[in-house]
TrEMBL record, chains A, B:
Domain of life: Bacteria
Species in which this protein is naturally found: Herbidospora galbida
Ranges of residues in domain Aldehyde dehydrogenase: 2-409
GO molecular function: oxidoreductase activity, acting on the aldehyde or oxo group of donors, NAD or NADP as acceptor
UniProt-listed InterPro entries: Ald_DH/histidinol_DH (IPR016161), Ald_DH_C (IPR016163), Ald_DH_N (IPR016162), Aldehyde_DH_dom (IPR015590), Aldehyde_DH_Superfamily (IPR050740), ALDH_KGSADH (IPR044151)
Matching Gene3D superfamilies: Aldehyde Dehydrogenase, Chain A, domain 1 (3.40.605.10), Aldehyde Dehydrogenase, Chain A, domain 2 (3.40.309.10)
Top-level taxonomy: Bacteria, Bacillati, Actinomycetota, Actinomycetes, Streptosporangiales
Keyword Disulfide bond: no
CDD domains: ALDH_KGSADH
Protein name from the UniProt record: Aldehyde dehydrogenase (NADP(+))
Length: 467, 467
């Protein structure tokens, strides 16, 4: 399978970016055409509701289309041209640099919690195909039938079906990471899973890049000026906490609030009014129960929602602690508990926050609620150090698929914090630069030819130029 | 030392790019001012000649100045702005992304063969300081007095001398790699040294990036159309092979040539006319003798230069083999032998070359000599796969310090082939992105404010715009 993918990739990497863009658009079309067939398969395997699954198919299609736009723009190759300078000491040659697809095959480990958008039809696959790479996906065991069917749908839109491979099972995943033709690995999942893959990669003779997005606690800081409407704040928190039964890597697991009785009362009421639901898999449910229960003896339960009528459903749970108790419980209290659970930490003074923020592990997001930029200003650098995305007066769930999005963060949120798994720059993970020195124009890739036939943005002699 | 550097870095990272640029220019000035004092210190420790050392001080200054230009341009932060779109489904927030310096301290292992330009005053240090990071350098034991003196010169130009630390000795190097405040490591040196550092990093709880540039064999392919002037070709090869007593990571260690008696005769004569010299350290000399001697029984010696009058000097040596013999001796025959040694491999047909090129390990450079782009065209993709820089009718030694330069290559040339240790994009290694979602303009870094006060190139709503 990996050998076949590598062979197909040899052709794919030579195709012009515009042609790859057309293929990505066709994949998006194929996913949307298959929507009626696909969402019930996903529902049966994940317990996720119809509206969410339909929305996620759209998100998958949008991701393929974004990378089609990226290819048409051409900025992803980061073309840089330095003309020769014979008068320099020593004389400077003509040097032209651009990104090329990484050699071989990209391995992708699918996530459980987004059966479309972070799985076989996910951003890792879309960005790797866009870069010009063949991909082999290790299916998530939480939705095997869906994985197979989605792979078929995507293959039907590819010029060579071998460009996308699908493997199943732990051992096949290990083989994928070890295979000499696999040159980069993407992963979305747990810290434990990510560490296991990193350990396998560390055994390889060649240190290939591992782009793991491992989730996080996503701290939210509520500043005193944000207390004007405590009910709205509490309801926003409860909604973000319980969205998708809390099964998002951007789930708000830590809320720092002023020690304000009205706000705590509002949070209690808002969380009590929520309904949880069934979790994706029995293992995830067990992990949630174990993680949440470990807080029972240590912290005070502030509020509990309803489990709802579905068998095996879990109830949202929120604990509380003051800043001192919480700080003394670090780092354990800042470990992610995947599911609808959070800790509300009460503080007395804003000036008490920086120290605890600096002691938190890296997160994908950090949020501040405030009505006053001057009040929030001193905290922003700490939040930007703590997380890959800083959010103002919003909630961390919901990761827009755009050019500027960064979905990554300091360890343990990401294994390579420089890279993102969502947004246009996700394509960079599957590229590597080549510089061409003094090559005749006829031998250069179109992106680097003197007359810029593709009209892409380039840096020429140190200056960015737009066609 | 590392703690002090981290503290100094906390301030440095907050300084505007323009201010950091001024500091880099001052470092360049200070190095040039100290030239008369520094080059004799280097000569006494490295046996390198005056002209070379003076040139290298200039190169170091040029590197600091290039990164000052990079900072003034502002493109290194890769500012991307997506305005909010309330009409989208779901509504899109305002997202603005840019690179920030990595947290903590950058660790740099200096190389032996460039006592200025890849050592304490090297590109790793210049690019990391430019990014906004504090640096601690592990001095190379080949030039300890110079390392200390250069560190003093650089510190004298820094706003806080603690921004640059210097440690010496193997154990201090290990501590540097293991230290929790070190967030990225740069290295230029041997494959063995690089593997040792990678192993230490693999033991860390957090998988920090390791940017190792480990050298390579730098294959050169001579095509039949290039045989018009065999003497010029042979002299170019011999000069590149013996430059700096062959102690360059871009030294041409493999030359594929048509089985042409005249060319082989010219190479023999050109190499016989060379003089080697003293090597940088006794260990490097021993490594060269062992490596070259291991070929004695296996391959035919084609030519040998003179050692020259200096005690302990080595003589350049060139071996030869036909393509079949060479191919059967892979991968051992493609291992780098650091010093003035090469293998000239004779081939019969151009069509025999792609297979052997695909079996070579990754290199920093791959060169083709040809008078006919049509003849060379089929090989260019293989060369671009094999190496990070493809050179036309030139020689691999000499790495221009420019915007487009890429000095890196597939493993084992680099541990992270996506990155370069020379050229403007080397700064990226010490940066990590942050996205700001819906932040008020007043809380955004200047690079992301709506009115673009710094006038930097940015991508706005998907389109690259130049101020």
């Amino acid at each position: 399978m990996i050998n076949e993918a590598a062979r197909a990739g040899e052709v794919w990497r030579t195709r012009p970016a515009a042609e790859r863009a057309e293929v990505l658009d066709r994949v998006a079309d194929a996913l949307l055409v298959a929507e009626e067939e696909l969402w019930p398969v996903a529902r049966d395997e994940t317990a996720l509701p119809e509206a969410r699954l339909r929305g996620e198919i759209t998100r998958s299609a949008v991701q393929f289309r974004l990378f089609a736009d990226v290819l048409r723009d051409g900025g992803h190759v980061e073309a840089i041209i330095d003309h020769a300078d014979a008068s320099a000491t020593p004389p400077k040659p003509d040097v032209r640099r651009m990104f090329q697809p990484v050699p071989g095959v990209v391995g992708v480990f699918a996530a459980s919690n987004f059966p479309f958008a972070f799985s076989v039809a996910g951003g890792d696959v879309a960005s790797a195909l866009a870069a010009g790479c063949a991909v082999v996906v290790k299916a998530h065991p939480g939705h095997p039938a869906l994985s197979r069917r989605v792979a078929e749908v995507i293959k039907s839109a590819l010029p060579d079906p071998d460009l996308l491979g699908l493997v199943e099972g732990l051992e096949a995943g290990r083989e994928l990471v070890r295979h000499p033709l696999v040159s980069a690995v993407g992963f979305t999942g747990s810290l434990r899973g990510g560490k296991a893959i990193q350990a396998l990669i560390n055994e390889r003779p060649d240190p290939i890049p591992f782009y793991g997005e491992l989730g996080s606690v996503n701290p939210v800081v509520v500043l005193p000026s944000a207390l004007a409407d405590p009910v709205r704040l509490a309801e926003g928190f409860a909604a973000s906490l319980t969205l998708g039964v809390g099964q998002f890597c951007t789930n708000p697991g830590l809320l720092f609030v002023p020690d304000d009785a009205e706000l705590l009362k509002a949070i209690t009421a808002a969380v009590a009014a929520t309904t949880g639901g069934a979790m994706l898999t029995p293992a995830i449910r067990e992990g949630f129960e174990t993680g949440a229960s470990s807080l029972d003896g240590r912290l005070t339960e502030l509020a509990r929602g309803l489990a709802g009528p579905i068998e095996g459903a879990v109830a949202p749970r929120v604990y509380t602690a003051d800043l001192t108790t919480f700080s003394m419980g670090l780092p354990e209290l800042a470990e992610e508990c995947f599911g609808p659970s959070a800790i509300v930490v009460t503080y007395q003074e804003i000036s008490d926050l920086p120290e605890v923020l600096r002691n938190l592990p890296g997160s994908l997001t950090a949020t501040v609620h405030s009505a006053d930029p001057v009040e929030a200003a001193p905290l922003v650098p700490d939040l930007a150090r703590l997380a890959g995305r800083v959010i103002w007066n919003g909630w961390p769930t919901g990761v827009a698929v755009t050019w500027a999005m960064h979905h990554g963060g300091p360890w343990p949120a990401s294994t390579t914090p420089m890279h993102t798994s969502v947004g246009a720059t996700a394509i960079r993970r599957w590229q590597t630069p080549v510089a061409y020195q003094d090559l005749p124009d006829a031998l250069l890739p179109a992106e680097l030819r003197e007359d810029n036939p593709l009209g892409i943005p380039r840096r020429v002699d140190g200056v960015v130029s737009v066609a």
